[in-house]
Amino acid sequence: MPYDLRGRRVLVTAASRGLGALAAKRFAQEGCKIALNYFSSHDAAETVVNDIKKAGATVAMLQGDAGDIGVCEKLVEDTVKELGGIDIVVSNACWQVNVKSQHALCRAAVPHFNANPQGGVFLMTSSVAGNTQSGSSMAYSVTKAAGLHLMKCLAATQGPKVRVNAVLPGWLDTDWGAANLPPDAKKVLTEKAVLKRIPSLEDTVDAFVMLAKNESMTGAKVQVGKFH
Q1: Is 140 annotated in the active site?
Q2: Cα separations in angstroms, 108 against 43, 77, 92, 218
Q3: Which residues are within 8 A (CB) of 15 and not within 5 positions of it... i.e. 6 or more apart?
Q4: What is the mean pLDDT of residues 65-78?
Q5: What does pTM read for this prediction?
Q6: Residues 6 or more apart from 72 whose CB is under 8 A from it?
């Protein structure tokens, strides 16, 4: 039987826009209670929070820099305080925090996961760049690869009540994605893609939800979009 998402307490980091915002909304649609983290985009985060509230879901807005290890620990603590516990973490990190903050978030969440009757789920946002010698920069590709190795190490050591998986999207058409590639990048990447399309945010969020529900998967890298 799939892990029932109804009533689960979910922390989503970097959720004021783009992939994080859509993930927060989608998990809310699945019946989850949401702790929505943002750093500086208060107005954008408030818009997402209001959308979730209008849909009838419980949501708390948590400000903090997910690149700060101390803040990561506090985000978990505040999620437990606001929602009464924590069942799932969607660590939607930017490239600067691909390793240390992922580890800090998971370390803070694991005791709560182990205390839950059905354990907990830690999901990382990674990238196809972590699997290949590609990406917008060498640093980005290397840190994504390091994050994936961390994911496998955590999956191997934190069970049996903790599932750790990663979603690896290709280039996503978000504000951040558009700002970090040249204007013709979308056309070039579409032509290179095996399926001749770039991954959508909706398809990427579907992978997060699938991994959250699937009780038989840990240490998995789910790639959304693949390029030559």
Answers
A1: yes
A2: 28, 8, 16, 19
A3: 21, 23, 24, 36, 37, 38, 45, 48, 90, 92
A4: 94
A5: 0.91
A6: 66, 101, 104, 105, 108
Please write the tens of the pLDDT for every residue from 9-44: 999 999 999 999 999 999 999 999 999 999 999 999
Q: What digits encode the pLDDT tens for the residues 111-142?
A: 999 999 999 999 999 987 787 766 557 877 88
Q: Which of 16, 101, 127, 141 is catalytic?
A: 127
Residue 144 known to be catalytic: yes
Among the listed residues 140, 141, 200, 221, the single catalytic one is: 140
Catalytic-role residue among 16, 101, 126, 141 = 126
